[in-house]
Design brief:
Belongs to the ArsC family. By secondary structure, the chain is an alpha+beta fold. Helix content is 39%, strand content 11%. Helix 1 packs across helix 5.
């Protein structure tokens, strides 16, 4: 499994601690340094079964500067949101864990991390 993290994030550190405690095999991706491109974001959104606005941190400074709260949340605006996430990765909710069954989870809770573990590793 791959875990998208920001090391400064307590939820990310908590997820990694739980994965370590469970002996999980995973790869860390520091997505602020190794920024995902638009295609990767689209792929993760498909795995998450979510829309880009569902994983956007709207309280971040960049979100406020872009006026994201005012952006339409509809199919026609999807690419605009994906572009914003690719250009401002701090806007991406974290941690995101990919699972062996082809799904992914935003793992902000212990329950979500355990759900990812139940789905296996890749």
């Amino acid at each position: 499994m791959e875990v998208w993290i920001n090391p400064a994030c307590s939820k990310c550190r908590g997820a990694l601690s739980l994965l370590d405690a469970e002996g999980a095999d995973y790869t860390v991706r520091r997505y602020l340094e190794d920024v995902p491109g638009k295609d990767e974001i689209r792929a993760v959104l498909k795995r998450l079964d979510l829309e880009p606005w569902d994983i956007t941190r709207t309280q971040e400074t960049a979100a406020k500067e872009l006026g994201l709260k005012e952006w339409p949340r509809e199919a026609g605006a999807r690419e605009r949101w994906i572009t914003a996430l690719a250009e401002h990765p701090r806007l991406i909710q974290r941690p995101i864990i990919t699972a062996a069954d082809g799904t992914a989870l935003v793992a902000r809770t212990e329950e979500a991390v355990r759900a990812a573990l139940a789905r296996g590793t890749s």
